[in-house]
Design brief:
With 271 residues, this protein is an alpha/beta fold. The protein has helices at residues 2-45, 65-72, 85-93, 170-181, 222-236; strands spanning 54-58, 98-106, 110-117, 120-126, 128-133, 138-141, 152-155, 193-198, 204-208, 214-217, 243-247, 253-258, 264-267.
Length: 271
């Protein structure tokens, strides 16, 4: 009996030493690989022909290549393997216009920076005028001399934002979503939007150019309300420009006010 116990203990000790030996082997191999990498890497860092001398910037339209290079914070001469590409990408992404960025080493001395820029959708007007992106970020402050033609996006109350901040008010976010969806509304396909005003209660006022009417929409499913307007006009054989004011705030109703007549109402189901 004691002999069997002794054999079991001996086998356990052997298994333990075997496992410890394997662990030691793995650790030794890792140290060896790290040493080789360091031994190979160190001379590479000292090679002058690996210094970055050709930086290409792709995908930019609104931000200059010089601004992106400056944002990247590359101080030459610098070896290609000394650059932390992830950290550099983070610095470039801090620019309001930059939505995404990828950076690629092109050895021996090249670097390719590819950016995706945000797209402007309107001019946020509240005291100052700012360029607003499709995802609700304040891109830059607009100067009076700017010739950029975009619809104005105006809250009926005073708001304060700075460049690089996102819209956070739910009414403004709803208005921004409406602004992006308006090109898909058939009834407005021939009209040009001059301004969308977001009221404090969540209602929207659309100001159209070229003698088109002012449209007032409710906060719930505004595109559905525009579809109701299209049906009303088609039902009567009329055009949008025949009216000075359109009120779509009331479910199942379209209130049409001609330029020089009393307001007319059309009752019908929403689609």
């Amino acid at each position: 009996m004691n002999g069997k116990r002794g054999k079991v203990r001996k086998r356990r000790r052997q298994d333990l030493w075997t496992r410890l030996g394997r662990i030691a082997g793995v650790v030794l191999l890792a140290v060896l690989v790290a040493g080789i990498v360091w031994w190979v890497h160190q001379p590479l860092l000292e090679l002058s022909h690996l210094h970055i001398s050709n930086i290409q910037v792709r995908g930019n339209h609104h931000v200059t290549k010089e601004d992106i290079r400056s944002q990247a914070g590359i101080h030459t001469p610098v070896n290609a393997f000394q650059l932390d590409l992830e950290e550099m990408a983070g610095r470039i992404m801090a620019h309001p216009w930059i939505r995404s960025v990828s950076i690629e080493r092109r050895l021996p001395s090249g670097l390719i920076i590819t950016v995706e820029e945000r797209q402007p959708i309107g001019l946020l007007t509240s005291g100052k005028t700012y360029l607003l992106s499709t995802d609700g970020l304040i891109l830059e402050e607009m100067k009076k001399s700017s010739t950029r033609v975009l619809p104005r996006f105006r809250p009926a109350w005073r708001v304060r934002y700075r460049v690089g901040e996102h819209l956070d008010d739910p009414h403004l976010l709803g208005g921004l979503e409406l602004l992006g969806a308006l090109p898909d509304a058939p009834v407005l396909r021939q009209a040009e939007l001059e301004e969308i005003t977001v009221e404090a209660d969540g209602y929207y006022v659309l100001h159209l150019t070229q003698g088109r009417p002012v449209l007032r929409l409710g906060p719930i499913e505004p595109l559905r309300q525009l579809t109701r307007l299209e049906i009303a006009l088609r039902h009567r054989g009329l055009k949008l420009e025949n009216f000075a004011y359109v009120d779509l705030r009331f479910p199942g109703r379209v209130i049409l006010k001609p330029w020089r007549k009393e307001a007319e109402q059309w009752d019908g189901r929403t689609t």
